[in-house]
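User: Just a sanity check before I run the rest of the batch. Below are the structure tokens for the first item. I only need the designed sequence back.
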């Protein structure tokens, strides 16, 4: 089965749109998605991107997310708590989930709780809300997320994103071709299917 990598960050506003859309779109196209959370904060800092300090841009972002959500019929209530997950706990839990094969389910549950239920990412209450329905033990997952291996895996995934030239979240990589932003999801899928116009021209 054709495959592409989905790089995203727990706490990325635009990633929510892709998280909510990518599964169904990829299945319809017959494409396997590899869910790869990474630490976008490190990458943004390396590229001198400081979104938090850009008040006008942040205001625009949430309005833009609301518009795109309506366009793509993605649920939207209001701008979520942001910034969130200061200690990268949600992202480290994702490393545990990726290792165990339940990263997609955890990601969907986490982003829904963040966006639609008004819960901050990266705290104990959030984990106690999203993990039991996934039949995961909160204490065990919490311990695993705080273990050195989870930190190391997150660093490795961030290194992988950096290697593809990724500087923001979400991003998609298909056979080494990188697409940045939720508005490039359709184009990434077209590339994975081999029907992108540039591919045909070449």
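Assistant: Here's the designed sequence for the first item:
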């Amino acid at each position: 089965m054709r495959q592409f990598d989905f790089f995203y960050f727990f706490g990325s506003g635009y990633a929510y749109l892709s998280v909510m859309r990518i599964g169904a779109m990829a299945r319809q196209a017959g494409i396997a998605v590899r869910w790869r959370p990474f630490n976008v904060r490190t990458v943004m800092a390396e590229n001198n991107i400081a979104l938090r300090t850009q008040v006008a841009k942040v205001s625009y972002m949430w309005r833009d997310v609301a518009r795109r959500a309506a366009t793509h019929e993605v649920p939207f209530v209001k701008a979520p708590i942001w910034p969130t997950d200061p200690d990268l706990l949600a992202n480290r839990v994702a490393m545990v989930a990726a290792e165990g094969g339940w990263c997609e389910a955890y990601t969907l549950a986490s982003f829904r709780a963040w966006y639609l239920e008004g819960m901050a990412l990266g705290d104990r209450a959030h984990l106690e809300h999203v993990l039991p329905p996934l039949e995961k033990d909160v204490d065990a997952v919490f311990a695993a997320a705080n273990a050195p291996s989870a930190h190391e895996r997150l660093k490795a995934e961030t290194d992988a994103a950096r290697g593809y030239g990724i500087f923001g979240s979400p991003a998609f990589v298909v056979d080494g071709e990188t697409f940045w932003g939720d508005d490039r999801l359709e184009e990434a899928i077209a590339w994975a299917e081999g029907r992108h116009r540039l591919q045909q021209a070449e």
